[in-house]
Each structure stands twice: as structure tokens, then as C-alpha cells.
Amino acid sequence: MNILLLGSGGREHALAWKIAQSKHCTNLFIAPGNAGTTECGKNINIGVNDFEAIKKFAVDNNIEMIVVGPEDPLVNGIYDALKKDNSTKDIIVIGPSAYGAQLEGSKAFSKKFMQRHNIPTAAYAEFTKDNFEEGKQYIQQHSLPVVLKADGLAAGKGVVIAATTADAWKAFEEMIINQQFGEASSKVVIEQFLDGIELSVFVLTDGKDYKIIGHAKDYKRIGVGDTGLNTGGMGCVSPLPFLTDAFLQKIETKIISPTIDGLQKENIVYNGFVFFGLIKMGDEPYVIEYNCRMGDPETEVVMPRLKNDIVELFLAMHSNMLKDAVIAFDARACATVVAVSGGYPGDYEKGKLISFYPPPEELGEATIIFHAGTKINETGNVETNGGRVLAVTSFGSNIADAVQLSKNALNHIYFEGMYFRSDIGYEF
Ligand code: AMP
Ligand code: GLY
Predict the structure, then answer these.
(1) pLDDT of residue 234
(2) Predicted local confidence at residue 361, as pLDDT
(3) What residue ranges define each of the domains in the chain, with the CATH number in brackets?
(4) Is there an atom of ligand 2 within 6 Å of 206 CB?
(5) Is residue 24 exposed (0-12), middle (13-18) or buried (19+ Cβ within 10 Å)?
(6) Predicted model pTM
């Protein structure tokens, strides 16, 4: 079948790499893609939110499946737009309806959903400018640190963990009064700080059944030792030694099953990934957030470890046969280390030539270079085109070995200003 994948990050290169290996994939198109995805299929110059152009391309090219990488088009309703148009309604869409995508698109929506279904999460309250003063009082009596979250999508920047009441007030005012994130911060969720180890678990679901397709731990801070500003993610490792069968069972019983049951009970149309952002406090799991798509860079370890044909899983999901699927994982440890542009996550320059020594094809089977912010320039060379530039994934007998292989590969890659964290997976 002909498949269209939407997006242009490292996540999409990893998805493209996986989809291209499927026996069901005839032609793969990636819109808009990056320099790396050209190795897996054909890049198409269409933006992920240009629904009319996507529909036209799909019709003209006999696309039978559309896999949506990022959250934006999902929250903006790409699923619904495709389904309500006669010419595209039969295309299999991997991604939830706009309503289902509210699990990520609105923090207040997801908190209420968790409350309705008794899913463990931090205690919270929500505020708008109409009860701003009440919000300030709520902050004043709150334990510290206190967590403030812009309700809507804020490109990963909408969460503030405030150590003092004054800082929290300032952040609250920035969001609500000064509209720091526009409409996205017109409502703010204020919640309890959960102290523990973060992990992410990924499922594929048809809204009734689900399969866990992987898990990972992401390193969000820019600096060694988890210091400095938050980023989109500087590296990932999987599997996690602390995620025992017993703890995973607890996550399924207390969090994943009630979430999928909740989708079904509320008739929420959901055919796609759920990314459970979790925190392990003591021996108990809590939800920090839901995302309605795969993670980046988590996908760069989850897809390589997943042994199944991913398109076969998508087809099983589509025909409500997920419960019969048997998921298999590569037993090796896997790590990805992200190379970023100098200055990221602040301002950075684009257009830096990237040199690969040795060439990627000489790296060996254990290492895969996924591209994120890259593009092929007019002279046919690969240059930087974003903050996160490459995600170098390796397999190893343990996490430390896998990270070391990725760092070895990165030592043969160069672009001006390139930086990567040397301590991904340091705890393991
Ligand atoms: P989010 O955008 O919801 O993923 O939040 C970004 C990051 O903020 C998370 O990955 C956590 O590191 C942190 N965070 C969010 N909520 C909490 C919380 N309630 N307690 C502790 N850390 C949190
Ligand atoms: N790595 C975190 C995310 O994809 O949201």
C-alpha cells in the first residue's frame, strides 16, 4: 500500500525507517520530511497543517494510510478532516480524532479525564483570568515546589516548576495576564510537584484494545547531570532496568487499562498512539501527561527495539484485531544521543554543513543515524535545519555500551556549534 507519513523530526525519520521495512509498504511519502527520510521514501513539500494539500496529495497518489507524527495536526483535527471528506474517508489514519487529541491538547481536559476514571495523577486546580486572584491564593497556600502548566499546546515550553511562591505568581501572571503562550495559556493548571523517576510508556490502541509497543526514559535538560534549560529531549534509553514486570503490571492495571476503558466508555474516537508520561514515586506510578503521538526522541529507541512489522500492527489496529497481536522486542539495550545546534534550546543558527566520517553506511549494524532538523541544500549536501539535528541510536549489551557506540559515531560527525550530552543513561 501507499503510505503518507506527516512530520519532519527525528521521530518521523525513525517511523519512516520502520514503515519502509514493512512488507505492506509499496511507496512511502513523507511530508515534509528531512534529509534522512529521503533514504526511506520520497519527501513531499507539504506542511503538516495544510489539510487541503494533504487530502489532494492523498487522492492523487492513491494513499491508503496516513501516519501522523506530531501533535499539531491531530489537535487541529486532521483525523476528522480526512474522515468527513468523501474522497479521503476510507484512508486508514494513524492518530486520534481532534476530541481524542485533547488528551494532549488540553491539560485541563486530561486532568478531568483522569479524575473521572480514577487514574493516579498530581492533585490540581485550574484557573483563568476570571478567577486569577483565587489562583494567586491557591498558589500561596500550595506546597513548594509548585507546578504551573499552560492548558494548551506550547511547543513543550508551557510547564513551569516554581521553587518559590513569588516565582509561581510571576509565571502565573505571565501566562494568564501577559498571555505568554497566547490562547494556550488563557487557562492554567496548577498542580502538586511529583518527586520521582520519569519514564514514558507507549501504546497503540483502537480505543478498545491496546498493545504496549515500548518504553523509554528521556533526558530533557540541555546540560550534563540534568542541569540547565528544558529541551525537546537530548537522548533516550530503553529498556529501563527499574521497569520490572511487576511495576509494568501496576502501570497497566492502574493507568493504561483505565485510560483505554475511559476512551471506550466516553465513545472517544481514538486510533493511534498514546504516550503515557509517567513518574514513579516510591513504588507507585502517576501520570504527568498524556500525549496523542509518539515521543521524540523516544521513537528513536522504541522503533528500533520493536521487532514487529509496524504497518501490520497499524492494520491490526484498524481491523480491531490488536488483541491478537504478539509484540516482540529486541533483547538488546538501545540508546539514542541527540546532537543539537549551538545555542539550542535558545536561539541558534541553521544552514551549517554536516560532515559524516565515516559515512553512515560504514557504521555497522548496531548504529543508526536518525535525522531531525536537517535538509538537503541546493548543492546536494546535508545541512542543519533545526535545534535538534541528529539522533544517533545504537544497540549494546547494556545501556552504557549502547550510549558509548552512539558517542563514538558522534565523534565522527561534525557541524559548527554541534553539542551533545555525554552522560545519557548515566544512572544505569
Ligand atoms: P509536560 O509538558 O507535561 O511533559 O511537562 C514537562 C516536564 O515537566 C515533565 O517531563 C516533567 O519533568 C515536569 N513535570 C510536569 N508535571 C510535573 C509534576 N506534577 N511534578 C513534577 N514534574 C513535573
Ligand atoms: N520527548 C518528549 C516528547 O516527545 O514530548
Answers:
(1) 97
(2) 67
(3) 2-97 (3.40.50.20), 123-192 (3.30.1490.20), 197-324 (3.30.470.20), 333-414 (3.90.600.10)
(4) no
(5) middle
(6) 0.95
